[in-house]
Amino acid sequence: MSYLSKKRRRDMGRQRWQFIAVGVTVVIGVMMYAATYDSYLNITSSYEQTYDRLAFADMTVAGGDEALPDTIEAIPGVQTVTVRHTADLPITIEDHTLRGRMIGTPTSGQPEINKLDVQDGRYLSADGEFEAVAEVHVARAFELSAGDTFTVVVGPGQDFIVTGIAASAEYIWPAASTQEIFPDPEQFGVFFVDEDLVAQLPPSASVRETLVLYDEGVSIEDVDAAVHDAATGAGATSILTQADQPSNSTLQLDVEGFGEMAIAFPILFLTAAGMAVYVLLTRIVFAQRSIIGTLRASGMSARELRRHYLSFGLWIGVVGAVVGVLLGVVAGAFMTEMYTGFLDIPDTVVLIRPTTIIVGLLFGIVVGTLSALVPARAAYKIAPAEAMRGATPATSGDKSWLERTVPALSKLPVRTRMTLRGIGRSKRRSLSTVLGVVLALILILASGGMIDSILNMINDQFEVVDVQDASVIASEPVNSDLFAEIDATRGVTRSEIAANFSASVTANGETLSTTLQGFETDTEMHGWTNPSGSLPASGMLAGAGIVDKLGVTIGDHVTIDLPTHDVSISLEIVEFVDEPLGMPLYAQYDVITEALSEAGVDDPEGLMAAPTVTTVLTLFDPAIDRATVIDGLEDVNGVLAVQDARSLYNTIQQFLGLFYALTGIMLLFGGVMAFSLMFNTISVNIAERSTEFATLKANGMSDRTIGWMIVGENLFLTILGIVPGVILGVWMASLFMGLFSNDSFNMSLMMSPWTVVIAAASMIAVALLSLIPGVRSVKRLDIGAVVRERAA
Amino acid sequence: MSEPAVVAEGLTKIYGEGDTATTALEDVSFSIDQGEFVVLLGPSGSGKTTLLNQIGALEGATSGSLNVNGSEIAGMSDKDRTEYRRSTVGFVFQFYNLVPTLTAHENVALIAEITGDDPDARSDVVLDQVGLEDRASYFPGQMSGGQQQRVAIARGIVKDPPLLLCDEPTGSLDLETGRSILDLLRSTTAGTDRTVFLVTHNSTIAEMADRVIRLRDGKIVGDDVNLNPALAVELRW
Is ipTM strictly over 0.85? Predict the structure, then answer.
């Protein structure tokens, strides 16, 4: 090993904690990249493998004429077309009534499109009667296994026997529709039954779906467009590409989030690491001026010197990158397994990707080397003669900017003035401390802002928008007697009828699958976020996202198809509502009734009263036990099921658990990054001024006073970094929220002021923590040693 | 008679420009033979260190010529100056400037490594010459000022340079240690063709020189040959 290499090794050993701090930041940055990017690719591959294996439909078309399947099959790029029927029917499992989606499935063997991944028991048999395969989520919720039964509550009721439990590509995320994104397996479950049984149901009870699978290698966009045109021309009521399919679109949002994180967050860390390397090496070069001058005077070339100081950065980059990549690959595999396990994705693909490893290594090496460029250049640019003028030159002295701006500050005690001037003493180092705070706050506030926004969104949805405590589903048309009985149930403080239609709206060549909901005139079951704050007496309210989706605006009359009733009505858009979930349509109950009449429906009141349309919304007395009220409602004759709004809220909170865990990790890493950067700059600061502090100590200044001077300087810089850090952090958080908005979610940033306060306070806490080692080193300062090692 | 080692003619060095221009050296001319022990003497600001820096090619001259062993160095390029220093010059500084994370042996070998040939063996030899063979594995922080300066001298001569340039080598040392260092400088160059330039403000030290060049305000105000140089151990200041 050359002596210069030995020098480098020992220089790094001498300041090992600073190098370790910097190295940790490189490790975290590279690890985050490798872990999140590999997870992103692994999860994407896992989905792809599942979708390929189970022949997940590229397009699902609801409705349309009889010729549609043949029309679609003739389109170039289409491989397979199948037809099935689905029906949403009330079912009971033990004593619990829920909405069951019956999906028609061939009994002669697995379907060609949307196969089932049977995980327990067996598939349907051709000679079986009233058999069903339960989808894995409802099976888990009710602990179903092969041999268990459930009842479809249609007419006298029909028992089905569960033959097996299966996962389906359509219901990895078991959402009922694009407007009902958050599933509650205790209120909605999917079962796969004989297609012939579902096809026998009347058109009002079932939906005919055409499933399309494309050839491999075709242009998805082109074939999508062709199928879409054919479906629209055939009068389809819903046209969903694989990307728009509720389960897939919700899951892809998550996956895309990983992809964004894989780039954004590592960049933060690597920027911090780069700054730390720069500060550390600049200090080393500065402190070694006389040595550099001696080496230059002895004939060492500029190139050798530059290479020597660049090698510091290279070493940090290489070691940090290698450790980061190793940890990242392991973490990526772990995260993938955790994710697929949590979501019950049937396939888990974990690959070690050379590209990720190479890019991760390059990230670390490039950051380390680039950051060392300026200090290395400074080393070889030092004129030997200048470096030979004795000890390291004093930095230029001047009053601080604050003192020049506020002259009265010059009357402060000298040690306070010294603190103020210390900030401007090394502008680059001060900037590094500020930058560390800014970057950490961006990470913390982006993560914290997302949590706040999602919590607010959920609270808004359940406490401002949908305020009912329960929806009561009847087994018969809701008449005044039944309504009165429901209303009289102990614990119910208010009851209202409400209508709910599956609907689709087509405008400007785009179709939106949504719901049309009807409420009583003075409803208390829904919070209105439109400008006038109430449901209009005529026309309808629409979710604000419909503007971008369909290109419609206030005053437009839109045609709303109600496919389960084979009728279309026309309503005018009066105002827009701004709600977190979906893009629903709202109108008064009577307005919908009148619109049905105008559309030619013979008995609009009868249609509206049908149990598949009308539910009774209820509010509970908070003083009475919720379960008691629900039991009372379920006991009412004519009540089929009671959907507890709180149950869905709790289910959503469970699903967010994974998200909270990941965000918590981000917060931790943010703190580590800030600590690492601050510790580094503070250590450099103290080391550089060791002679100064030794002199002060020799003259009787206490360790505590010196400690407070250092604390004051760094706290001031921390506070200076908090302002831009908060601004940039809030901005970054709103950018992230925008990425997650789609048809099902309207995500906008709603950050709690407390989040900002806590983030800022945590930065101050990290700053104080990072000061501890440095202040301790001042205490331990050996005055004699400092004087002896002048070249240190 | 051998060729002179160093010949300066009209050597001038001006720092800065216009109103802030400072003339550190003005029209300096001299000729030094090989093997001479030369003291550059003068008060602070007289230009002695500047002259040393010129001889060591640490910086270029404003005008004039400076010839060392037949090579004109006043107008050399940076690259040529580096090569010149590598092959021709050894330095000893007032504050030693040792690398604190390298041992005595390693500090010397680091410089020997620059010239490429067997640094370890040569380092051992020169450390022996300066009497530090048993301190070779010590770090600077474990040595006294005098010992550190010996290491610096060893480092200065490990390349066997024709010129040894010493800038106030005893400035940080007490009398006894300083004398021993001066004695060492003399002894390591005795019997060689090595020319030594030693900068000092201490006129007593000039008594040991073969040649004393006095400077004041950047000019040579005296250039004397000392026919009976004193021994370093006899000096008293």
Answer: no
Percent with pLDDT over 70 in chain A: 94
- Is the minimum CB–CB distance between A10 and chain B shorter than 8 Å? yes
Phi-psi region of A151 (alpha: psi -120 to 50; beta: other; left: phi over 0): beta
Whether the pTM exceeds 0.80: the reply is no
Of A10, A290, A297, the CB nearest to B56: A297
| pLDDT score at A473 | 85
**Beta carbons of A301 and B82 less than 8 Å apart:** yes
Chain B residues within 8 A of A293 when measuring between CB atoms = 97
Among chain A residues, CA nearest to B159: A298
Q: Compute CA distances A599 → A348, A567, A602, whole Å.
A: 51, 7, 9
Could you give the CA distance from residue A226 to residue A210 in angstroms, rounded to a whole number? Answer: 15
CA distance B90 to chain A (A): 6
Average pLDDT over residues A108-130: 94
Bridge partners for A103 per DSSP: A86, A192
A contact residues 539-598, partner B, Cβ 8 Å cutoff: none
Residue A548 phi/psi, 5° resolution?
-75, -35
Q: Which residue has the tokens 């004397």?
A: B224
Closest CA to A616 of A480, A471, A515: A471
Q: Are A198 and A206 in contact (CB under 8 A)?
A: yes
pLDDT at A398 over 70: no
Q: How many CB atoms lie within 10 A of CB A448?
A: 25
Q: How confident is the model at residue A395 (pLDDT cuts 50, 70, 90)?
A: very low
Nearest to A10 among B95, B96, B101 (CB): B101
pLDDT digits (tens, 9 = 90+) for B48-89: 999 998 999 888 899 999 999 988 998 888 788 888 888 899
The pLDDT confidence band at residue A784, using thresholds 50, 70 and 90, is low
Per-residue pLDDT, averaged over A565-570, amounts to 84
